[in-house]
Amino acid sequence: MNRWKKQKPAARQVSRRPNLAGEGFFGRIGYFIRRAFANMRQNVFVNAVTIGTITLALLILSLFLLVFDNLENAAENWSEKVQVTVYFNRELTPQEVAAFSSRILAIQGASRVKYVSRDEALKRFRERLRGQEALLDGVQPEILPASLEISLKKGSRESAGVETFVSNLKRIPGINEVQYGEEWVRRFNTFLNFMRLVGLLLGSFLLVAVVFIVSNTIKLTIYARRDELEVMSLVGATRFFIKAPFLIEGILQGGAGSLLALFLLFALYESFLHNAGSFLTFNPAVSGLSFLAPEYLAALFITGILLGFIGSLTSLKRFINV
Q1: What is the pTM of this model?
Q2: Contact assessment for residue 206 and residue 64, using Cβ atoms and an 8 Å cutoff
Q3: Could you tell me if residue 9 is inside a domain?
Q4: Is the pLDDT of residue 19 over 60?
Q5: Alpha-carbon torsion (25, 30, 33, 34), positive or negative
């Protein structure tokens, strides 16, 4: 009896659960993060393969996004050439120009109005025939019409928007002859819509392929440690306790892969700018070619983190019931 009483406090001390995770919520998170880093150090090769896979997959996706974004910017610049021209068979007085301009700008979709006199029209004609100006000898400005050139806002450059604007424009008294290159506008918008459709399909296909590749690669890393998962489950560890380090590890892998992919993308972009002049007929550095905007870079970084997290989460389902 005395022996049992002496050992009882010692038994009570052994049954007390050790505080491995630190104090409070942040202590547990710190423990899981340290555990994730320890797992990565113990499986350097497998983690390097996973990060490399994420890097390559995101690099392909970001390259496509870079090309598509620059094509969109080029299309936006081309769309600025969509303009409506109103012709007059006489010169307009400054008062008439101001009156027409105010009424035109009141129409929804109008961005800017510029008056082109007959003299200005002849000057432009001569510039287009540079080197053959002799053809215009004796030509007087009176044979050319004066005009108002109307630039449209971005939302009104589609075919339907231009036609609606022109119909409203013709309701202004004194405006009869209007031209806007109907066929050119229609073909341009058809090409733009086709390009966007192809970009959407290719982008969706690449994203699905990236998710599939990354998920299966992370599945291999977890499969290599299946014995560890089974042992932890047998000794009574909770699902969250088992999964948390692996999920954090997936987030770290995704973040590292996305940063490497963005670094390689920028290196390829700079290399292209400095060397493309030797095999292209134009200089990309002065042609409006631009790198991805900060919001795209942030989206790619977050995508990498989500890929690592979702890949780990779906891979863990094979060993742990969610």
Answers
A1: 0.64
A2: yes
A3: no
A4: no
A5: negative
* Residue where a domain terminates, one of 179, 205, 226: 179
DSSP string, 240-278: HHHHHHHHHHHHHHHHHHHHHHHHHHHHHHHHHHHHGGG
* Residues 101 and 172 grouped into a single domain: yes
- Mean pLDDT, rounded, of the chain: 76
Domain that holds residue 95: 83-179
Q: Which of 136, 160, 179 marks a domain boundary?
A: 179
**Structure-block tokens of residue 164:** 């609606």
CA 300 to chain centre: 8
Q: Which amino acid is at 226?
A: R
Tokens 């392909």 belong to: 60
Q: In Å, how far from its chain's centre is CA 193?
A: 17
Q: How far apart are CA 264 and CA 268, in angstroms?
A: 6
SS3 88: strand
Q: pLDDT-based confidence at 16, cuts 50/70/90?
A: very low
CB within 8 Å of 27: residues ≥ 6 apart: 21
**Total structural domains in the chain?**
2
Are the C-beta atoms of residues 234 and 226 closer than 8 Å to each other?
A: no
Quote the radius of gyration of the chain (alpha carbons, Å). 34
pLDDT digits (tens, 9 = 90+) for 294-320: 999 999 899 889 888 887 787 777 666
Edge-to-edge strand ranges of the sheet holding 146-152: 110-116, 146-152, 83-88, 177-179
- Reading phi first (left if > 0) and then psi (alpha if -120 to 50, else beta), residue 179 is in beta
- What's the mean pLDDT in 48-58? 85
Supply the DSSP symbol for 12.
H
Q: Residue 143 has which token pair?
A: 């044979």
